């Protein structure tokens, strides 16, 4: 089996929101852990446990991220919420497909690729906009009241 790509957390993925960046790091690590489990042949149980962890962690993260976007009246809040809903549905389909395939490594590889692509793409296209908006709100000077 070819070595699966690993994703390094770097400055280009930072949103500038400490809590969201920390959660994104965890998700990137989980994608890398999934690659390790697949490559090392850790088996169906390990891969299913990682997928379950990722599902619940992503849902928890999405709730947090959506509340930050909403609290700051971020213009992409609704786009972000819809993307998260689509991801949760896709992820459920991937999990069902993996189980139905009787833990076929090819399906696990496909899931890994989709997860990595979606995560990095979503951070770059949507989450960074949330970070920019929050930073603009926090960085703007308070009117002096003149």
Q: Which descriptors would you attach to this protein?
A:
146 residues; mainly alpha; Four Helix Bundle (Hemerythrin (Met), subunit A); 4 helices; elongated
Describe the protein in words:
With 146 residues, the chain is mainly alpha-helical. The chain has a single domain (18-139), classed as Up-down Bundle (Four Helix Bundle (Hemerythrin (Met), subunit A)). It is built from four helices and no strands. The chain has helices at 18-39, 44-71, 77-100, 105-139. α2 (44-71) runs antiparallel to α3. The longest helix has 35 residues, at 105-139. The mean pLDDT is 89.
Give the topology, please.
Blueprint: H1 18-39, H2 44-71, H3 77-100, H4 105-139
